[in-house]
Amino acid sequence: MSNHRDLIILGGGLVGMTLALAAAKEGLTSHVVDRATPEELTAEGVDGRASAISTASWNLFCNIGLGDALAPLGCPIEAIAVTDEMKPGRIDFRPGPDEGSLGRMYANRDIRIALFEAAKHEPAIAWHMAAEAVERDRGPHGVSVTLKDGRKLSANLMVAAEGRQSPTRDEVGFSLAKWDYKHRAQVTALYHEKSHEGVAWEIFYPAGPFALLPLLDLNGRHRSALVWTVAEKDAAGWTGLSDTAFLAEVQARVGEILGKVELAAPRMSYPLNFHHSRHIVDHRLALVGDAAHGMHPIAGQGLNLGLRDVGALVEVLADGMRLGLEPGDAQVLARYERWRSVDAFTAMAATDALTRLFGIPGRIPSAIRRLGMGPVQRISPLKKFFMEEARGMSGTLPKLLQA
Description:
The protein is an alpha+beta fold.
């Protein structure tokens, strides 16, 4: 196969790899460039994070051929419990018996392994691992990338999937709406005495949300992922705690929900911020995932938002090619930007508002929040609306995200 391909995808993370496979299913060829090797990206302990995969994102994985590999590895989210500091007045989102789950929890490592395994057998994808792009060029008839070892790759369209610190985006000079939440997420996994029964807990404290997310049992032991947000000014104190002291603090916040807890994975932490690119396309360039938008993990929608980018971009590219337009055509990219800009901004604005609302300290704000939870708990249409949002089934969905 010629060195020239339809796409050059810069970044082989979860979104970049999914894009390459989804594009291949529509007959588009790609170069994928990443600094790490598959072995590094899938090694034990490299990424202890877990992701909530919405119903729409699960449809995408099934439609690109990953359903059988991933089905036994995910834990269904049967319900979501939302509470303000464990006080009375919580909201319980629980679908009816015929409505399915609210999503599935997956270890990021398991998704990566499935993606790499599928890519091994896909001739439309050329992987360039342990490679670094040192020069990017976008001309009138195509794009090219020069790698650090001197190799040169060419394609019709360049896609930046490099994450929040995307050098391609910054090189172009896209303006960003961005701010620092002055929060840090502490991430790990826990073993616990009692079964989680498929319930995801979102417990809001003034310092930040405390999320317990159900994982599959391991060796007969119950497990949940923990995402605990703390103020950046206190982060050094929290990250400096011994495991024993850390678990004591976790136990104090979990109470008796899950019984006694123990660490099931290394502890990680990372700063939280918001950014949203004013534009997500330029001449023969498209942004996807965190390169385009980064949000607070409060609602667990960051990866799902990136997967919606994937579905939309692949659909507009495939539709354009059926009309005789090549992947870098400006009309094709304009359609992608129109489609994704409103959806992404709406989701991010809602998440940002939720973060700020539950971050207001004091008894009176807490009482007002709990008072507001009452109507949501009692009114079925409201609960159904929020559950459809959690499933990712609202709005105009790309075909790849439909069942």
